[in-house]
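Ticket #606: bound-state structure for 6-O-phosphono-alpha-D-glucopyranose.
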Amino acid sequence: MCGIIGYVGKKPASEILIDGLKTLEYRGYDSSGLYISGEKRIRSVGGVNNLYKKLPKGMKGTCGIAHTRWATHGKPSEKNSHPHTGTSGYIFVVHNGIIENYIDLKNNLKKQGSKFSSETDSEVIAHLIEKQIDEGSTFEESVVNTLKVIKGAYGIAVMNKREPEKIIAAQKGSPIVLGIGDNEYFIASDVSAIVKHTKTVLYINDGECLVITPTSHNIFTIDLKTCKRKPEKISWNTERVKKGGYKHFMLKEIMEAPEVLKNSVRGRLLPETGNAKLGGLETITDKLTTIKRIIIVGCGSAYYAGLVGKLYFEEIAGIPTEVEIASEYRYRTIPLNKETMILAISQSGETADTLSCINEAKAKGCSTIGVVNVVGSSIARAVDAGVYNHAGPEIGVASTKAFISQLEVLLLIALYIGRKKNVSSSEGKNIINEINKLPKKIELVLAQAKKIELIAKKYSDSKDFLYIGRKYSYPIAFEGALKLKEVSYIHAEGYGAGEMKHGPIAMIDKQFPSIAIIPNDTVYEKTFSNIEEIRARDGKVIAITTKGDKKIPTIANEVIEVPKTIELIYPILTTVVLQLFAYYVGVHRGLNVDRPRNLAKSVTVE
Ligand code: G6P
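RESOLUTION: The complex was predicted; output attached.
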């Protein structure tokens, strides 16, 4: 979590840093701070705008570092905000990640006279560097030696008042990207923060350090060996990260669904043969057709996408599949062998728990593949092969467009494998045909936004919601409930519709509405009975069903229809209804749906 930006060049740094921090706020937004050469450190609680208001006019310094925080150690406060300094106050450090051995290091430093001013783990880095410089080491040596003693994950940027035109950065588990301009350099946790200044970038690898001055950049390992790498050109543009006339990123990103669903499969569909073309998997195609088991790992919405993926892999590719929450998987003893493949799903490609599952699986000799949205991200680079979502930057903290794109890509991967095994060409063609029709069908769902808004408004005072579904709608019940929790802070629970009577039905009364996801699929009748059970107990039901359904309106209190499609694709259509519902409930409750309290988009701590 947390976002870092740094600049060294000829322009005043303050504007570049504030602007970059605003882009990085999705990584954390409880406090922020900056240090610019020749100026005082400035820090503030709350969003980046609060920091901006505190800046003196006419700051001229041309080298600086800045940070937006998501609190891990110590609550959001000015003293816990970054940059942190050592006792003498000439070293400034911004840090993303967690230093696991900070208590021992802090106790040692205190014994040696260091004076700490925050509750953070990060502050030890500043003290360690400062102490070594005091003892005669160079700035570079002090940073490198500090990295050798800290344990955990970090992306850091460090400045030294005594060398005002230099930034040293380093990464292990929390990315730092270098942007190369014309006699100027940028560093950031994510390219989105620097893309308006340069499209020439260099990704720093774990265990590497970087020194930038206005005229040079130098990458080296912590053993001081120089690393030579060519910069890459990125194709992002800044328009893609603006709101484009919508009130919130979340709404903009939901409304982008038709385009996203086209982009995720562009050039990947072979309608004549009913097959998928996935260049990123070609190197491991043989393996994919012989593996005996897939384990999908992910967190949050990505985990729920995995639950749908499991059904695709079992039904279409005929491969037994398990899905694990990444933060659980990594601490369990799961018997693995070379016939098991680990598939990581991650929008950001930076989620620490998911990344560590991949590293762990690789160490055990398993093949790994990724379904990742952010090109060049840590997970994308760590996996053996993979498929990018091409959903474009997702800024709203609660995942929307990335989630539906994950489902679409997982379906394509299952088809890609299935067609090499048992799936017939006509079955394949049917799936491809429906995927091609999907953007138009999603438009019909989005056209009901007004109706969904009215229903959302009517129920927005509810204290609890139950979401139910079966088979392909079962994971969607979880995802729908998660979306509502994230953006409205209303308690919501996803449940298998059939399992509801084994507990949750006890809570049902007039005040406790349920959302039933009941498209016209193979489990329709069963879910219908579960709705009857809720209605028999006076519970209100909002049903999401297939257009033209005659039975549901006779029993549900509210009905929202999605166009008819095949069972495999209903989850994509019904999800968009639930995203709009959550969005409007959040908005009617007056909440900041793009940046819900306590959350961050990219969870780079375990
Ligand atoms: C955070 C976000 C969620 C996201 C999850 C996994 O919790 O708020 O929206 O689903 O992380 O993120 P990833 O980038 O790995 O998909």
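RESOLUTION NOTES: The mean pLDDT is 94.
TICKET STATUS: resolved
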